[in-house]
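Subject — a protein and its fold
Encoding — discrete vocabulary of local shapes:
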Amino acid sequence: MLIQNDKVVTMHYHLTDPDGQVLDSSRGSDPLTYLHGAGHLIRGLEQALTGLDVGATKTVEVAPADAYGEHDADGMQTVPRQELAGIENLQVGMQLQGRRPNGETVTFFVAEIREHEVMLDPNHPLAGVALTFDVEILDIRDATAEELSHGHVHGEGEHHH
């Protein structure tokens, strides 16, 4: 059985940046199981996995545009630190939710904390970074009707009520 849309795929992965720094890995822990074609993986990785079979190993290089996008410096915002006074233990890298004037929810990451202001970055921390995945396909199966209707994988014995 080959990886294609509506298949449940179980794999191990090892993610590094261009300097070889490990960013994430399932090695030594549980593998990742996902519904192929449901948008749970970054586009470049999901496309590269299509057509692989159980037992396949592959190194996948994903350009920023097919991962978390290019870094957009224009989206940076500076807010008075007092506006964030209610947030305990504010620290660089912290993820915050905000609303645009049109009501749309946006995620910001704390980029810098100064004495009187805080720099917020709407870019994902890996925006602009080329990613390398080393993957090993462990299992492929047909998704159940329930998984397809919910758009995600259910673990053994898991159901929504």
Observations:
- DSSP finds two helices and nine strands in the chain.
- The radius of gyration is 19 Å.
- The CA atoms of residues 22 and 130 lie 13 Å apart.
